[in-house]
Specification:
Elements: H1 4-18, E1 23-28, E2 34-36, H2 47-51, E3 56-62, E4 65-70, E5 75-79, E6 85-89, E7 99-105, E8 110-114, E9 121-126, H3 144-152, H4 158-163, H5 173-182, H6 196-215, E10 256-260, E11 263-267
Parallel strand pairs: 2-9
Antiparallel strand pairs: 1-7, 3-4, 4-5, 5-9, 6-8, 7-8, 10-11
Helix pairs in contact: 1-6, 3-6, 5-6
The chain binds a DNA duplex through residues 1-3, 64, 79-83, 98, 115-120, 154-156, 160, 163, 165, 172-173, 221-222, 261-264.
Length: 277
DNA sequence: GTCCATGTTCTTTA
DNA sequence: CTAAAGAACATGGA
């Protein structure tokens, strides 16, 4: 599941490969993965016509989005969904199954977007649309007073609020569970009942979890690979995610699994006690 | 063959 | 009307 640390690792590994190159050729194997941010344009959108011949001047991340900036300021982004990969091919090879888009670059490298489940895709923004108008703040630079305010505005399980990209951008199922454990907060705690102190502790836990995951090049649970097709190692350091029934690494109590907001949720019933309400 | 994994969007419910 | 909860999507693996 590519979340913020995985997307950051992909961007970091791809920057030296793609920034400064021009797009020589575009192979689009599946038209449906291309979207226009807004607009009901009746005429079919020609991604290749927009991209070919243009230089990539920047590759950045916002939330879980990988943002390409072109020389004239036009932008598009790739979202990896659940199973997406964005991989630089350093030698010419045949595209694998589920390769939906291939960019051929002026330095001879290929950039493949591969996504079996097709929850991901490419969003063309052009020169006017912003890549993140609908996203909440970045967790790594967020301040606790701001998070406290936005959590107070919504009455639902804190886990559901943290998964909401409008509230905070970049967290997914793995890092929300890990951060809630690190902060000793039960995932079903109602978001508007957290104190400022608890919120500050939660944000510290989010930041340290994400920074550690970035340092370990992300979590390769199922499909994730970085831009050079290499796995991350943070999955070996998960304390609760996917560890149902195994002993809590802090107190030894068997970890529990519940379904919250339709998502599997692992936590320690002793370290993260249910809030009495 | 059934069920489950999950990010986002769409639909339904309260 | 709003907010929250739930379903749907797609495919491979258990």
């Amino acid at each position: 599941m590519p979340e913020l640390p995985e997307v950051q690792t992909i961007v970091s590994t791809l920057q030296p490969v793609v920034v400064g190159t021009a797009i020589k050729k575009v192979e689009l194997f599946r038209r449906e993965i291309v979207h226009l941010e807004k607009s009901t344009a009746a005429e079919p959108f020609d991604l290749a016509a927009q991209l070919v011949g243009r230089q990539i001047t920047a590759l950045t991340r916002r939330g879980k989005r990988i943002i390409f900036t072109l020389k004239d300021g036009a932008q598009f982004y790739i979202h990896l969904g659940m199973t997406g990969r964005l991989i630089a091919q350093h030698k010419p090879i045949e595209p694998v199954k589920h390769t939906h888009l291939r960019l051929m670059l002026s330095n001879g490298k290929l950039l493949d977007f591969i996504d079996p489940r097709r929850f991901g895709g490419v969003w063309w923004l052009g020169q006017d649309a912003r890549p993140d108008g609908d996203l909440g703040p970045e967790p790594l630079t967020l301040r606790s007073a701001e998070l406290y305010q936005s959590l107070a505005k919504t009455h639902r399980a804190v886990k559901s609020a943290l998964l909401d990209q409008h509230v905070i951008a970049g967290l997914g199922n793995i890092y929300v569970d890990e951060a809630l454990f690190a902060a000793s907060i039960h995932p079903a705690t109602l978001s508007d009942t957290l104190s400022l102190e608890q919120t500050a502790a939660l944000l510290r836990a989010i930041k340290s979890t994400l920074n550690s995951a970035i340092k370990h090049r992300g979590s390769s649970v199922h499909d994730y690979r970085d831009g050079n097709n290499e796995a991350g190692v943070f999955q070996t350091l998960h304390k609760v995610y996917n560890r149902k029934g195994q002993p809590c690494l802090r107190c030894g109590t068997p970890l529990q699994r519940i379904v919250l907001g339709g998502r599997g949720t692992c936590f320690c019933p002793k370290c993260q006690p249910e809030p009495n309400s």
